[in-house]
Amino acid sequence: MLDAYGNPWTYRLKWLYLLSVVFALLLPSFYIIYISFNEHGFGARIYEFTFDWYRVVLGDTMLVASLKWTAYLALATMSTAVPMALLAAKFYRRARRKVLFVTLMLSPLFVPADIMGSSLLVYFKHLNAACTALAAALGTDWLASWFELGFVTALIGQVVYTMPYAFIVILITMSRYRTQQTEAARACGATAWQAFWQVEFPQIRVGVFSSCAFVAILSFNEATRTALLKGGFDTFSNVLVSQMLNVGMSEESYAMAGTMSIVAMVAIGSILVYTLARSERLEREARARAEPVMSR
Amino acid sequence: MSDAADMAVQVENVTQHYGAVAALRSVSLEVPSGQYFVLLGPSGGGKTTLLRLIGGFLRPTSGRIVLDGRDVSGLPPNERPTSMVFQSYALFPHMTVERNVGYGLRLLRLTNRQIRDKVDAMLELVGLSGLGGRMPHELSGGQQQRVQLARSLVLDRDIVLLDEPLASLDAKLRKDMCLELKHIQEKVGITFLHVTHNQEEAMTVADHIAIIADGKLVEAATPRQIYGHPRARFTAEFIGENNLLDGRVTECDGAEARVDLGHARVRVPSGGRAVEAGARVSVSIPSERLRLSDGGGDGLERLQARFVERLYLGLTHNDVVRLDDGKDLLVRSLASGAGPDPVPGSRVTVAWERGDARLHTD
Amino acid sequence: MARGAVNARGAGRGGTTAGPPRPSWRQRVLGENGLQRWVFYLPAAFMILFLAVPAALTLVWSFFERTTFWMEPGFTLFAYENFFYSARAVNYLHSMLHSLAAVVVSFVIGFPIAVFVRRRVPQAAQHRVVLLFILPFMISELVRVFAMRPVLGRYGLINTFLMDLGIISEPISAILFTPLGVIIGDVLSFLPFMVFSGFLAMEAVQRYIFEVCDDLGAPAVRTFRDVIIPLAAPGIFAGSVFIFVNALGTALVPTILGGPGAVNAGLIANQAIVALDFPLAMAISAIMIVTLVTLLYIGHRLFDLTRILEPIS
Q: How far apart are CA B47 and CA B238, in angstroms?
């Protein structure tokens, strides 16, 4: 609420401040996109708009292959982390020892990428050795290479990293859901699954879908943990890092960075627009609700 | 134990713990088929816990729950012969009224035509014909609760559980809905088990009332008995407006006990209970049975008191008098028949018919 | 439809008081007391297996003996000596200072935004305003950090802009490849978190509290110090720990913005991995994890961090 007695200019100034902070946070990314469309790259005094650098990126077979890995990994992460976060959120709502559980679920937020990556790397190496030894002892090769560095270990690293975000998003949506509705559905004869799928899920769908997008973007952006855990393949961001560190900022790497920003912005932008439009609609409904229906 | 076939609900020694807290302690209860049965008690007393145990939303820590003669203790809600009406917020907000009511039928895989017919009939019964296309948020609170009732009744289950169904309604609407619930129950003839903390609501609808407090079943009886002849001290305290006096039995001759209140002695019918001399007991007298009297008469018990004040309540008024031990008594009488206000501080005699007092031994 | 359709499965209505109906094996395995119940433990199990256990084991591995390419069981303090009796410890302390500076700057810039949004923006719009800060966060940190180079560099956006305006005649070189550059990078990377956690904490502050303060005529500074800070303390603390630990542990920022010799814990660990000195990497990880747990524990004892979660539970 606006303070009716406050100075409107102070209020506008505060807004200006807020928006300029957002702008400052976004500026470098926009600047990179701007550079990436310049024929002459960074530092040139002339600006000629071109798609050439993007053509170079998309023409690079290694890069396209890495994009494929990125997509696989993002999809796999999404389809693992989101259902698990959903389970976790449902568990949390009923759990008695909430503090312990929520600490466990949210702690990955607080573990920096390189630290989590290194300790998981060493863990997987040990685990792999143990599994191989166990498989040899049992005379089976079923267990042998489960935790060999590769897609699965990179996936696990990313799931650990992204699950807390999905968990929070789903939990926030779920906090608006009334559990009596589940009980009502059960009383109507629904099984636990039917009650979830037919009554609860339609109401938390938005949260689940946005957490899907959230997780996919996080996975798409992730570089450090993946670099440590991936074994043989490269994701797009892995290639970008090695390019930047080895070659420095080339025109091509600007285009790659531009690609990553644009993809993220388009994805998150469309989600934001959708959510805002939806909350607008819900608000209109809420207003309609506030006006009582007189017929009884 | 009564014939199992006639009992819709049998709760046998059920105990429910939440962690270290006991919400119910070894409760046993029987609800005959076809009755409107009310669980009444103060908030936090365990009545909703009991209802949720019967509905299958909680798993008893120990004890058995038998519905229609079948042990259902291990079954989830959807496999029990019960359906439930919740306090509020329990309608599915993303479905129309029609779909809400028909939800359970669709789970049973009835044909669309069957569902439509049943839903229409049920909406008619609860007085919502023509509103099937509305969304829940387009209905008033009373209408929402009717939809909930329809959603439960349409399933043709043997037992309908109602968890404070009227709690979110205002006083006037609550009264109307009470009567309507009663009439609907009479029409469909199945067992209603209704939880409330509101005694007026309970009195209006119930065939039987069970008082539940502090995790225990205090007593169960018809509304008349509960009001007129409560056995437990708690019931007398909770239901109606009773004056409670504590004392010690000096002698008991079977039909009547003499109770020493400290400042006076009174005679109280023992209600057929054997009471030993020396036992601590309570005596309760409804406020409307007391009167300020100086007149004589046989069979009257009297206590000396000082008049404190008179509270005007419209139809009746309450006189507050103070006994010599400092305890206040309420004397209720019709405002129309009252004489002039006594002077505060003046001595008065409080009297009652001996038969109107009740003895409580717990 | 006959009355009591649900009874079809078990004994009929009026049957004798039979024992509990025996569930089919399918029900027993897949039913609510079978898999359906245990599946909810999956996320916790996953987190224990792939977060808690590895984190605890880093402590153990940090005492292992280093071999040429790997490590072997043993007990040695070599890794810790290697860390504490070298330039690494000093660098680590420096990077702690830089992280602390990043926390303070983020707080000064970010927290007033959280307060402003909570206090002055209409309720319905609050979440949307906070969502604005998701946007930069959703762009890869990699890109954002790298993008600082063309912005802060000698011929970067800021310098050319200021020189074009004639405000400066020489490019400012203190803002890239310096500790200052690292701090700027950390702030730009993690600032949104201060806004988020600050806002979440401010959700715990009821609106009427501001009105009471206004009503009592409390000056803004007093309101901030005596009311807002104590009430929002858990959120401020959580946000600060987040920024501190991540600034300390994210190798990317010093690698790209820090210039020669700039390191932090993350980078030391990363370099140790590259050098195949696994016990050293584990020792640094262990130090980080212990630091983190200690900080969170202290914060929890001081402010009860669970209060942050109240709005969503």
A: 15
